[in-house]
Specification:
Helices cover 57% and strands 3% of the residues. The chain has 15 helices and four strands. The strands form two sheets. Strands 1-2 form a two-stranded antiparallel sheet. A hairpin with a 5-residue loop joins strand 3 and strand 4. Helix 3 packs parallel to helix 11.
Length: 422
């Protein structure tokens, strides 16, 4: 069941509906801006938690009654859960509490053979760098790898947590949104052709089982969704009135706090989104570098990353229940020219992201856009990357305007040393 941009657009529109344009160049207290920033974080993580609970309800229905309709509803709930979460990514990089935690919920790409069956012809059977590459915990109650034995008789949250990055391999992603995504869609075996993953609902039906081990697959899906809820609840609490993330930021030096804000915004714009999530895949024409690679949801995740930056810039976020969180935003501590440039740059990036979303809905999915030989699709993606690079320059201008020092944005070989990319 395809979710169109116009279905998602309501969530984007409420970000600005009823919110006045930012008043650049006005004097504002840095601590007040940081308070708004923390208020928006609290609201976003709260909305992410609520959406994850909706996802869990849909997963429970699927497991209890594994029909194609219930699978479609679970997939739609997963897509909806991504909308508020992706807007939180602007809180990464600058906030250590978020960065240290983020790998539990949004790590990618993943070697999905750790979790479940895969197409060996497309995926392979072994990997010299990952002994757990094809461990398939769903099919195996005991794992014996490299002299280590793991008892996987009971699939629960504790087992899944123990498997996350097992063997100190980052690609062994056992938890979070993308593990849930893989279980709901299965592998996307279409390369840069049309189509997403096509796992059948009977993969969760013990009475009419396809794929084998349907009871264990259902147990994994339930447990990993429960674990996602636990992790989001923990992060939401960090931004509560007495939460340590809020207290550490708002109660500290305002200049240091603004450094955190701009470090997160600049790193997400440049190294993470423009570089690792977009330019790298475009250079390699590789669908495996697509962020939401099983569901073909990638353009929406990219779009909402930028919406999250605009929330912080304007100091405004309308929650999924309609409540408005609003206060002094980043533009309110910037000089008029720096504020205008940054606002214009973010707006331009959103326009380029919307063009990408529009192509996704009318012509082809993101993994097709980055395909080799697709000049038109490649150009649409490159235009969004270029807008992010201009946006990064405007963020650097905001750093200078505020007199901040010692800010280093995350980089990416795809942007900084493309000759190293293979």
């Amino acid at each position: 069941m395809k979710q169109t941009f116009f279905g998602l657009a309501l969530a984007a529109a409420v970000v600005t509906t009823g919110v006045a344009a930012p008043a650049t160049g006005q004097a504002a207290d840095g601590r007040a801006v940081l308070t708004t920033y923390a208020d928006i974080a609290q609201a976003l993580y709260g909305d992410s938690l609520a959406a994850a609970r909706d996802l869990k309800a849909a997963v429970d229905r699927l497991v209890a009654d594994p029909t194609e309709g219930n699978l479609a509803r679970a997939r739609a709930a997963w897509r909806a859960a991504r909308v508020p979460y992706q807007q939180t990514e602007v809180y990464r990089f600058g906030n250590a509490v978020v960065d240290d935690w983020e790998g539990k919920v949004n790590a990618w790409p993943l070697d999905e053979g750790l979790i479940d069956y895969v197409d060996a012809g497309a995926y392979g059977t072994e990997n010299d760098e990952n002994a757990y590459f094809a461990a398939n915990v769903i099919a195996n109650a005991t794992l014996r790898i490299g002299g280590q034995t793991i008892d996987a008789t009971t699939i629960d949250k504790a087992l899944i947590q123990s498997l996350h990055e097992v063997g100190d391999v980052e690609a062994n992603v056992a938890t979070g949104y993308h593990a849930v995504e893989f279980l709901l869609w299965g592998q996307d075996l279409n390369g840069t052709g049309p189509g997403a993953g096509a796992r059948p609902a009977t993969d969760f039906d013990a009475a009419h089982c396809t794929g084998g081990h349907c009871d264990r697959r259902a147990a994994y899906l339930v447990a990993v969704t429960d674990l996602l809820i636990d992790d989001l609840a923990w992060m939401a609490a960090q931004w509560d009135a007495q939460g340590p993330a809020r207290q550490g930021l708002v109660g500290g030096d305002p200049q240091a706090g603004l450094t955190v804000v701009l470090t997160g915004m600049g790193s997400l714009s440049y190294g993470e989104l423009a570089g690792e999530r977009m330019k790298l895949g475009l250079m390699l024409h590789d669908p495996e570098e697509e962020h939401d690679c099983f569901s073909d949801n990638t353009v929406y995740s990219h779009y909402y990353d930028v919406v999250g930056m605009r929330n912080v810039l304007a100091g405004a976020y309308r929650r999924t229940d309609g409540r408005l969180v609003k206060g002094p935003g980043l533009t309110d501590v910037l000089g008029a020219e720096a504020g205008r440039r940054l606002t214009a740059a973010v707006d331009a990036t959103i326009d380029r992201m919307r063009a990408m979303v529009d192509r996704n809905e009318r012509v082809e999915a993101y993994d097709q856009m980055i395909g080799d030989g697709n000049a038109e699709g490649n150009a649409v993606v490159q235009a969004a990357i270029d807008a992010l690079l201009v946006q990064t320059k405007a963020i650097e201008g905001a750093v200078r305007d505020l007199g901040l020092t010692a800010i280093a944005f995350e980089g990416s070989d795809s942007l900084d040393a493309p000759e190293k990319v293979q």
